[in-house]
Amino acid sequence: MSIPEIEEYQLRQSALADKLAMLSGAQILELVYFATAESAGVVLSRSWPTRTDVERFINQYLDRKPATATN
After folding, report:
1. Is 16 buried (19+), middle (13-18) or exposed (0-12) by CB count in 10 A?
2. Which of 7, 31, 69, 71 is the most buried (most CB within 10 A)?
3. How far is Cα of residue 3 from the mean position of the Cα atoms in its chain?
4. Is it the case that residue 1 has pLDDT exceeding 80?
5. pTM score of the predicted model
6. HSE-CB of 28 using CA atoms within 13 angstroms
7. What secondary structure letter does DSSP report for 1?
């Protein structure tokens, strides 16, 4: 990797870490379940999730609309 690619990666990871720091404990647990399920789907397709895949799964979770609670 060249230096610009490393810097871009570090900036992307830093921005992602900032978003994750704002999650509650329950949301982090939900994210772990979500990313695990998505990773399992990749494995079932006879591949292995890469770091880029996992980053994409995390962003998909963060971009989704939060569910509203029903009583």
Report:
1. middle
2. 31
3. 24
4. no
5. 0.73
6. 9
7. -
